[in-house]
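WARN  no MSA supplied for this record, continuing single-sequence
INFO  ligand: fe (ii) ion
INFO  echoing inputs
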Amino acid sequence: MALLEWRDEFATGIPSIDYEHRNLIGLINDLHTRAMRDPDKGPVEDTLGDIHANISAHFALEEKVMRDLDYPQYDSHKAEHEALLDDIRAIMDKVHADREFDYRTSLADCLRDWFGDHFKGADSRLHRQTGH
Ligand SMILES: [Fe+2]
Ligand SMILES: [Fe+2]
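INFO  complex generated
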């Protein structure tokens, strides 16, 4: 089963951004499926690392767009990005400390809540203004 399902409430209403966000969710699910196929716990840590890296790359791009535009809500938007990366990092630490820790529920809950709020809020405000 997919770790994270796309929901209509995730949509910002800007097709190019929704496409990118959907791709991010697809990528998270692919990485997760690959990790689940392998009985060894090692790939789980790699998967979390890859998810963190991919989300981080998406954020870096958005933050560049904001800096280039002198976007007034840069600080608060960036703070939301950092909070999610910290949450993922905390899950990675738990997996590392306890090999039996089942990261799936925590990660799916954290991503689902966060994607719903952030896409609808900060991202949609930014992209509506910039068209990016
Ligand atoms: Fe985004
Ligand atoms: Fe964002």
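The radius of gyration is 15 Å.
INFO  checksum written, moving to next record
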